[in-house]
Every structure is written in structure tokens, then in C-alpha cells.
Amino acid sequence: MRQFDFMGKRRIAFIVSIVLTIVSVGALVLLNLNLGLDFTGGTVVELHYATAPSLDDVRALLASHGFENFQVQTFGAANEVLVRLQQTFNNDVGNQVVAALNAKGASIDLVRAEFVGAQVGGQLRDQSGLGMLVAMAGVAIYVAFRFQYKFALCALISLVHDVVIVLGLFALFQWEFDLTVLAGIMAVIGYSLNDTIIVYDRIRENIRLSRSDDMAQIFNEAINQTLSRTLATSGTTLLVLFALFFLGGDMIHNFSISLILGIVAGTFSSVYVAAALLLVFKLERQDLIPAKKENVEGEEELP
């Protein structure tokens, strides 16, 4: 089986990771995330059309009637349309939307009009950030107990790397960030960790079995041994996600984007961040050998 020199290319990979991270952080600071109604508050209007409309025509009609900062997407069937408005709610907003869209004589029924308060959106934003921090702290504790603190630190850096890149790309391209995207990022944390643990397990096993002290070579062997599993898992998962992206409709469009980006970043980081950083932190064979307990003073040694 052909062996790839992953660790030999780690410096190039570090440069790629650093550039992507700087661009992502810059986008988050300068452009900010395009938060959806789940976080900002606003109005959700669900409409039922007799025949499937053109979403571009719906957007043009709303814009011509003075509506601003809105999103239009299908909701399940092609003739079910969801309009999200980032404006003050009033009791007649649903009928106003229907009246604007009825300008061309389309048959439209108002299904519901609901308001999401800004206070609720702020609580969701704070709680979601706290949830991600708690998840990462739990990951660090788990890896530290299962492996060693250097593994935990590298795994945590890898997870932060993946999350920052996904968030940064959403900020850079101003894709809407809502609760479905947040759920996708939480799933990315779990997926990336699973991939990292598989690589770490093989690295630890190979260090214990090998007589060589060449850590880069040991890491290469471990990554090559898990490569087929990594490619199979990532490949089949991406096939499903691309199907969701193209066929799943607007409701889960950004959700599938967050997962696709996260899986690509997670697969890359499990090799070139989580594993390669162990070389930077100078992991040694002694780090994986439990320290011998010293005899208590005055205790006789067993024969």
C-alpha cells in the first residue's frame, strides 16, 4: 500500500490553516454574521399558493411594496412559501404581505404570521455561544483523561480551527446564520472529534508498538492506516450532504452548507492540525508511559 508523507507537508498545511483562520477572524470582526430571525427577532409569515410561484417574483413584489430586510424560501412543498421579515410586528402584517403578493391576482392563503422577539433572539444567541464553549470544554476534559494533556490541547485547537473557519465563511459570504446552521456546527464538532480520536488511537498504539523514536514517521504510518476509513466516512457523508444541498430545499440549504464546510475542514484538521500539532508540542514516548509510583518510606519491597 502506498504511504503518503503527510507530516512532510505539515508546514504548508500550517500556512493554509493560518491564512484561512486569519481571513475567517477578519470576516467575523469586519463583516459580522448575517444573523437570521432566530437571533435578531422579526416576523415569520407562511403562505399557501394554489400553484408554485417563482421566488424571484415574490421577492420583487415585496420589494416594490416597501418591504425591506426579508428572506423568501419554500417551506416543504414548492407551493408553500415562508417570508421572514426583520421589522416591527403588527397584527395585520400577514394580511399586508398577502395583499402585496396578490397584486397579480395569485391565489394565496395566509397560513400563519408569528413574531420572534429580539429578547428571545438575544437569549438564543447567548445560550448557543455558551453551548459551544461547554461542548469544547467537555471535549478537552474527555481527551485529556483518555489520552494525555498534549492530545487534549491539540484536539481543542483543531475544533476551534474548524468552527472559526465555518463561521468565517458564513460571515465572508453573508450567508444567513440561523438555528439550523448552529445545529450543523454542533454536529461538526462531534464529527471532527470522532475523526481526531480515530487518528489519536492509532498514533498512541503505534508509539507503544514501535521501537523507533521518529515521531513524524510513526504519525505518517498511523494516518495512512486510518486513511481508507477516513475517506470512506467523509466521502459517504458528503454524498448525503450534497444531496440535501441540491434537493433538500431552501429550509436546510445553509444547514447543509455548514456541514459540508465543517466535514472538509474537520477531515483536514484531524491530520494537519490535531495530529501535526503533537509534533510542535514535542510529544514523546515517555508522555504515554504511566509514571511509576515510588515506594512509601519504610515500606518493604516485595521479592
UniProtKB/TrEMBL annotation:
Alphabetized UniProt keyword annotations: Cell membrane, Membrane, Protein transport, Translocation, Transmembrane, Transmembrane helix, Transport
Domain Protein export membrane protein SecD/SecF C-terminal intervals: 100-282
Keyword Calcium found: no
Membrane topology (UniProt): Multi-pass membrane protein
Pfam families (UniProt xref): Sec_GG (PF07549), SecD_SecF_C (PF02355)
Keyword Cell membrane: yes
Membrane spanning residue stretches: 12-31, 128-145, 152-173, 179-200, 231-249, 255-281
Localization per Swiss-Prot or TrEMBL: Cell membrane
Major location category of this protein: membrane
Matching InterPro entries: SecD/SecF_arch_bac, SecD/SecF_bac, SecD/SecF_CS, SecD_SecF_C, SecD_SecF_C_bact, SecF_bac
Family: Belongs to the SecD/SecF family. SecF subfamily.
PANTHER family assigned: PROTEIN TRANSLOCASE SUBUNIT SECF, PROTEIN-EXPORT MEMBRANE PROTEIN SEC
Subunit composition and interactions: Forms a complex with SecD. Part of the essential Sec protein translocation apparatus which comprises SecA, SecYEG and auxiliary proteins SecDF-YajC and YidC.
Task performed by this protein: Part of the Sec protein translocase complex. Interacts with the SecYEG preprotein conducting channel. SecDF uses the proton motive force (PMF) to complete protein translocation after the ATP-dependent function of SecA.
Name of the protein described by the UniProt record: Protein-export membrane protein SecF
Native source organism of the sequence: Salinicola endophyticus
Gene name per UniProt: secF
